[in-house]
Every structure is written in C-alpha cells, then in structure tokens.
Amino acid sequence: EYEEKTGRAHRPLSPKQNVRKNLDFEPLSTTALILEDRPANLPAKPAEEAQKHRQQYEEMVVQAKKRELKEAQKRKKQLEERCKLEDSIGNAVLTWNNEILPNWETMCCSRKVRELWWQGIPPSVRGKVWSLAIGNELNITHELYDICLARAKEKWRSLSTGGAEVEGEDAGFSAADREASLELIKLDISRTFPNLCIFQQGGPYHDTLHSILGAYTCYRPDVGYVQGMSFIAAVLILNLDTADAFIAFSNLLNKPCQMAFFRVDHGLMLTYFAAFEVFFEENLPKLFAHFKKNNLTPDIYLIDWIFTLYSKSLPLDLACRVWDVFCRDGEEFLFRTALGMLKLFEDILTKMDFIHIAQFLTKLPEDLPSEEFFASIAAIQMQSRNKKWAQVKRMLIFDNR
C-alpha cells in the first residue's frame, strides 16, 4: 500500500527471500534447531534422529547447569575471600593505628609487629609506616623542600629563557648538564606508570612528581637526576603528602645501596653483585650453575630492579608489599626478593638460554601470584657459612681493598 501511494515500483523477491518466506518457522536458537520438527515442506525426522536430538539437548542443559553452578561457586568463593581480606585489612588498620604507631619506638621491632609487617601494611597507614621506618637522618624540613622547589623553578625559568646564571655551589656543573638533567626529568615523568595516566601531562600528579624530582636535583646537585628515580618518587607520592614524600625520597636515596647505584660507584656495585652471588649459589646452586654456564651476570637483571626498587618491574600493589618489608629489613631484602624471584621461576629459567633468560627477567610476567611470590622469598636463607648479608658484604669490601 505504501509503495502504491508513493509510486515506488514493487521489487520482486529474490530466490533466497522466496525460500525464507515459504518456511513455516524461524529457528530462534541452537535449541530450536535441535528440538523443532522439520518444516512441512521437508520429510519428517525419523524417530531415532528425534530421540538423538532430544538427548543432545538434555546433555546441553546438564552441561550448562554445571557451568552455571561452577561459576556461581567461583563467584561465591571470590566474594568470601574479598570479605575475609577486607576484614583482615580492617583489623590490621586498627592494630597499626591504636597499638603500633602511638608506641612506634618500643613496638616496631617486636615479633608481633614484624609478622604483621610481612603480611603487608594496609594502604591507609602505609605512608606513615614508611616515613617512620625510612627515618629522617638528613633532618630535612618542609621549609627546606619549599626552598629547593623555589630554586628549581627559578632554574627552569632561567634555562627556558636562555639565562646562564650559575650559583656558587653549582659552579662545578655546567648549564648543559643541568639542562640535560631537567630535560630527562620531563621525559621520564611521561614514562612513569603510563597505564595509570596520573603522572602524564595533564594528570593530577604530573606537577607533583616534576616538583619533587626538580627539588631533589637542587638539593643534591652532585647526584642530580638519574633514570629510575621517577618511579621511586611516584610510589612515595601515592602514599604520602608532597613534602613528606620529598623527605622520604631524599633519605631513601641517601642509603648506602641506593647511593652506590645512583652515583654509579662501580666498585661498590660490583661488591653488591658479588655478595648477591654468594647467596645465589647457597640457595639455588642448580640455577646458579646454569647462569654461570650461560655467562649471565647479575647486572643484566639486578640493576633495573634495584634502581626502581621493583616498582617498574612488578605490579604496583606487589611492589608496595616489597617496599613494606624493604622498609623493615633494609637493602638485604632487595636482594632476597631477587632470589625469591629466581626461585619462583627456577624450573622455567633452567630450560632457557642467555637471550631468553635476559628477556624474561627484564620483562617479568604481569600476573605474578602474590602469595606464591612471598612464599618463595620466605624460603630464601640469607645466611652463608654462618655469615649474614652485612658480614659477607663487609668481607668483600675488605678483600677488594
């Protein structure tokens, strides 16, 4: 009727459309295809075939119900685990806030606190615990941070306008060096946790990260900015206020291990690698021999892990748990974590050659199982011939002299 009124020509149906029009039914699903009788223009199904299709349908229903039940059980288990974890975190927060933090000096080294620490610090109190554990040996104040930041901003302005003023304490560092350092900061900020997008240009923490790194280059011009620092500063920013993050950052980088790596003290770095290999051979002799056979030295994978304190190599939540215990145990835990990693993947690594081992360790799996990883770390013994980490390191330093 519409076509007649509008004067449009009536198009004849195609052969395909003709066939579809003549069908007595339209199958709605696979179930329909199995159960429905054949159209009137086709021979009826034999009784055996109809029975077979009925059985197939019933089997499909049974399998579907099984899958549904399995999924429901999985969801229930996940919900129970999440509720259990939330209860555990809630109880831990109360313990940290009401018992441990108010009595930090007397309780921080107790067995109860150390055990609670190993399980992971609740995110809401993590920043406070890290600040207390890292300490402030440098006696940096909020005012000092403001001064360093103001000087950094002045230098940025000076460099952007082509100024060549050099202050007395910076006289040993050329304008080109300072400019390169500041340019490197800009470049690295955009590469810091790119998946989070919060540190990129326009993100909520971009300027904060830029400020802390810039202020540090003014506070320690002898160290300047080194790649990897942005990840450490970013993790601290996520857990602390800006000035407190700067204080923790500066004190953390002032620790012997971090200073050795960030100032590229080759002799001391080699000492750390040698100490690591002592415990590597002690804990994982088979893998140690395999690495030696393939000429795979610790610097190939350890440098990146140590420079960023695992924050670049591990998922962020897992890296924060490593930081928790690192704040408790110090530099030793960084190398214990490395051995735990090697132990976790020992079976895989022993079957690989140099290239594949290097690729695997510089790009770790993203779905690392948290509990298995920490169980692997716990299995590592940081004692060699009755000597602990610090003693082994001291012996190696003495031997090198």
From TrEMBL:
Segments forming domain Rab-GAP TBC: 120-330
Keywords attached to this entry: Coiled coil
GO terms of molecular function: GTPase activator activity; small GTPase binding
InterPro entries (UniProt xref): Rab-GAP-TBC_dom (IPR000195), Rab-GAP_TBC_sf (IPR035969), Rab_GAP_TBC_domain (IPR050302)
Keyword Coiled coil: yes
Signal peptide per UniProt: none
One GO term (biological process): vesicle-mediated transport
Entry GO terms, CC: cytoplasmic vesicle; vacuole
Positions in coiled-coil regions: 47-89
Record keyword Acyltransferase present: no
Region (Disordered): 1-23
The protein, known as: TBC1 domain family member 14
Organism annotation: Tauraco erythrolophus
